[in-house]
């Protein structure tokens, strides 16, 4: 009689959990089904693998080494199966911060899908400075590099941030071409007033005790307000390159802050073919 491999999973769960009932719950079968599988395995070994006691079951001492070996083997098999699944699947999960997703990824995504009709893309929100292993994504597009081993970071944009405003705001307010004029304009803030305080300090403009103006929780809301003519915003000029090239926003000063920071595309060091194709494609989109 050959080894009943189908019973090994039931034995491993029962040994690890010290319970036929809990093993059944984990494997989504009945207590009786686990008991039957264990009995079948015991017949093959010609010995009891568990000690039946009034309060439950206990792994027989002679079976402990076998149970440990089986558990570690199943873990390795599971890990290898996941790797094979990653190598063969055609779905890519891309985590992307909203500011890049709305300007660069989503508008161009149909081009990638037309070139790679066998690939399915799932786009999910990512938080700024989030790391690849935290997201479960295949590709991460975010602010800041990932320092963990086994990942590759491709720099996309500098975060150099400068004051911008829409033509309609400048038509209403007049020319704004000096830091002191910017300081007295209607300032729009992204999450906090700290960035404007940093910019004004770098520009040599005396700071007021409290910076006025609306604060927007999301950068896309800030950019929309700026384009609508509500005031002057601090925007990463490379990130907003298209709005600037289209004339929706005008850069008001060469003074920049946050130039030491960058946005990155991050993936594993040895990605599957479809992920490599996506990374190559997206880098070409932003060039």
Automatic annotation (TrEMBL):
GO-annotated molecular function: DNA-binding transcription factor activity; sequence-specific DNA binding
Keywords: DNA-binding, Transcription, Transcription regulation
The UniProt record lists the keyword Hydrolase: no
Origin superkingdom: Bacteria
A Pfam family matched in the record: LysR_substrate
Domain (HTH lysR-type): residue spans on this chain: 1-60
Family: Belongs to the LysR transcriptional regulatory family.
Protein name stated in the entry: LysR family transcriptional regulator
Source organism per UniProt: Rhizobium anhuiense
């Amino acid at each position: 009689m050959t080894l009943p491999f189908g019973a090994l999973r039931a034995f491993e769960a029962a040994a690890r959990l010290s319970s036929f009932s809990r093993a059944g719950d984990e494997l989504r079968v009945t207590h009786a089904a686990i008991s039957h599988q264990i009995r079948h395995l015991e017949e093959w070994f010609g010995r009891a693998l568990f000690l039946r006691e009034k309060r439950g079951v206990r792994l027989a001492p002679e079976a402990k080494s076998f149970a440990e070996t089986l558990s570690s083997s199943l873990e390795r098999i599971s890990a290898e199966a996941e790797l094979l699944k990653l190598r063969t699947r055609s779905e890519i999960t891309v985590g992307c911060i909203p500011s890049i997703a709305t300007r660069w990824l989503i508008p161009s995504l149909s081009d990638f899908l037309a070139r790679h009709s066998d690939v399915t893309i799932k786009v999910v929100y990512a938080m700024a400075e989030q790391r690849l292993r935290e997201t479960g994504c295949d590709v991460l597009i975010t602010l800041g590099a990932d320092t963990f081993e086994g990942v590759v970071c491709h720099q996309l944009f500098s975060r150099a941030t400068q004051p911008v405003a829409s033509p309609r705001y400048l038509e209403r307010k007049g020319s704004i071409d000096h830091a002191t004029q910017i300081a007295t304009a209607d300032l729009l803030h992204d999450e906090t007033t700290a960035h404007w305080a940093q910019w004004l300090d770098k520009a040599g403009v005396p700071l007021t005790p409290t910076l006025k103006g609306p604060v927007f929780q999301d950068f896309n809301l800030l950019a929309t307000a700026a384009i609508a003519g509500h005031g002057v915003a601090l925007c990463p000029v490379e990130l907003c390159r298209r709005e600037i090239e289209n004339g929706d926003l005008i850069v008001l000063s060469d003074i920049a802050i946050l130039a030491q920071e960058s946005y990155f595309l991050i993936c594993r060091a040895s990605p599957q073919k479809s992920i490599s194709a996506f990374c190559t494609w997206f880098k070409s989109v932003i060039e």
